[in-house]
ABC transporter ATP-binding protein (Pseudovibrio exalbescens), 240 residues
Amino acid sequence: MSDALLSLENIRTDIAQYHILKGVSFSVPRGQVTMLLGRNGVGKTTSLRTIMGLWQAKEGTLTFDGADITGAPISARARAGIGFVPEDMGIFGDLSVEENMVLAATNGMPDPARLEWLFSAFPALRTFWKSQAGALSGGQKQMLSIARAMIEDRKLYLIDEPTKGLAPAIISTMVGALRTLKQQGATVLMVEQNFSVAKALGDQAVVMDDGVVVWTGAMAELAESSALQERLMGLSMEAH
């Protein structure tokens, strides 16, 4: 396995009285796409939010690029190079597409070459550049959310269910953009329920169940074994 950019060791996260993460341990190899898989409600989104610092780990250690970030604030994690695409998109609906992108750029102005690449990956961004983000379709909002995280090179991209509820044509566009990001050597940790998308993009897989990791290995190994999918997730994901 490649050098780990991110490592979680025995992470425990509580939300109110609920014990969501019950000792999660796994690593994200540098320069690879790691898929975080499992049934709904097993702790995948909580894991991403804990890594970003939106929820604080009660126990355990988070190590990012050689530094302990367990108690670091969200701003410090962002400055360290972690970008986050939440499941709820996290865009500013009252602002224009342009204003959303400018706010996402560290220096307040996106790099022109990077912006052109994003326009080629997501043509709708150029079309609706001056439009209010809240008026976009669901797929266009998701594109904007991902583009905001991609506006600058990040050491790590945390992406939570980017294709959820999207039409096949939009999913194809999304996968194409994420594949290009992967080819550029990006490190990605992604939650994804669409198994065909996970299979197309993933190098490694981490499967969770009931707040713990139950399996880690090559995405190809999981994709090739219906029996393994059924044992780990309760069903064959090939049908989904």
